[in-house]
Specification:
Family: Belongs to the peptidase M4 family.
EC number: 3.4.24.-
Bound molecules: asparagine, zinc ion
CATH superfamily of the largest domain: Neutral Protease Domain 2
Number of strands: 15
Number of helices: 7
Function: Extracellular zinc metalloprotease.
Radius of gyration: 19 Å
CATH topology of the largest domain: Neutral Protease, domain 2
Distance between the termini: 60 Å
Subcellular location: Secreted
Shape: globular
CATH class of the largest domain: Mainly Alpha
Biased composition (Polar residues): 15-24
Structural class: alpha+beta
CATH architecture of the largest domain: Orthogonal Bundle
């Protein structure tokens, strides 16, 4: 009998997790037929190909450390399941492309490779093993970031350069936060940081900060005329900051025990409307209003339209959207 099996995984970043697998006693694989056939394979250092299937005899996977190659498989498989559930349960979207089809996740890409990437052509994601081959880039927020590039590709298709590129990157960071909050794992505290688990530089700091993006030394807190000329992972800061201000508000804030301090360009003091509403506004704007050439001024209009559709033109939510954009110097 080949049905959906309930396996157990010992992950590196999310503790002990339930994962759906396939197969039967003696030979299980990391394939999840409850989520479009999402499957996870082992590149074992290769940089191309489909990877080899992970197999397991007792459906208990990984040891929670890098010593067992299956551990990164557990994190990737779990993260892709969390991403699937987020899009389905929060946004009513079936899979990354909205067509019910699962994706391929490939772990152990290359050697000391401190990145992960989505590829539309194979509908797959590849993960390096990170710092000293010991911090795979398989934390839930990284998975959600990369897979959300596939959502953007199949919706607004924001061009990956200039201001639209910053909005493309920010969309991945915004939904990475959305997935992390939705997963709500005690082992991976939901936060507005990106990549806080993977220690990519070996200094214990996250890759990006949504409350004050410039804390990474490079990202923009506010729009300026140069926004289209900086790396897309830095111009994303403007929209990440907008999203934090809209969700949480300005100034000193604490969420789940994490401290934030979010400034505003115009000195305004903002109260957030909560991530549940903010992410719905962003998703509706992305999927119904934005196009490949949307820039920051367009993104303001797109989200105001989305908020108006969802909550009304005179609603507190729509006013909060306008105020948060103004606070990051994207004026109406
Ligand atoms: N990990 C990077 C990202 O998703 C890969 C890239 O530069 N596109 O942004
Ligand atoms: Zn990205």
């Amino acid at each position: 009998f080949q049905g959906i099996k309930e396996g157990t995984g010992n992950s590196q970043y999310s503790g002990k997790v339930e994962i759906n697998t396939s197969g039967s006693d003696g030979k299980y694989t990391l394939k999840d037929d409850s989520r479009g056939g999402n499957h996870t394979t082992n590149l074992d250092g290769a940089t191309s190909g489909e990877g080899k299937p992970f197999t397991d005899e007792d459906d208990v996977w990984g040891d929670g450390t890098i010593k067992d190659p299956a551990t990164a498989g557990v994190d990737a498989h779990y993260g892709s399941a969390q991403t699937w559930d987020y899009y389905k349960e929060v946004h009513g979207r079936e899979g990354i492309a909205g067509d019910g089809k699962g994706a391929l996740s490939k772990v152990h890409y290359g050697n000391n490779y401190a990145n992960a990437f989505w590829d539309d052509s194979c509908f797959c994601i590849s993960y390096g093993d990170g710092l000293e081959n010991s911090r795979p880039l398989t934390a839930v927020d990284i998975t959600a970031h990369e897979m959300s590039h596939g959502v953007t590709s199949t919706t607004a298709n924001l061009i990956y350069s200039g201001e639209s590129g910053g909005l493309n990157e920010a969309t991945s960071d915004i939904f990475a936060a959305g997935v992390e909050f939705h997963a709500d794992s005690p082992e991976d505290t939901p936060d507005y940081l990106v990549g806080e688990k993977i220690d990519i530089r070996g200094d214990g700091k996250p890759l990006r900060y949504m409350d004050e993006p410039s804390k990474d030394g490079k990202s923009l807190d506010y729009w300026d005329t140069d926004a289209g000329n900086v790396d897309v992972h830095n111009s994303s800061g403007i929209a990440n900051h907008f999203f934090f201000l809209l969700s949480v508000g300005s100034g000193e804030r604490e969420v789940n025990g994490v401290q934030y301090n979010s400034p505003t360009k115009d000195g305004s003091k903002l109260e957030g409307i909560g991530i549940d509403k903010a992410e719905k506004i962003w998703f509706k704007a992305l999927t119904e209003q934005m196009t490949s050439t949307t820039d920051y001024a367009d993104a303001r209009r797109a989200t105001v339209t989305a908020a108006t559709d969802l909550y009304g033109a005179d609603s507190a939510e729509t006013k909060a959207v306008e105020a948060a954009w103004t606070a990051v110097n994207v004026k109406g």
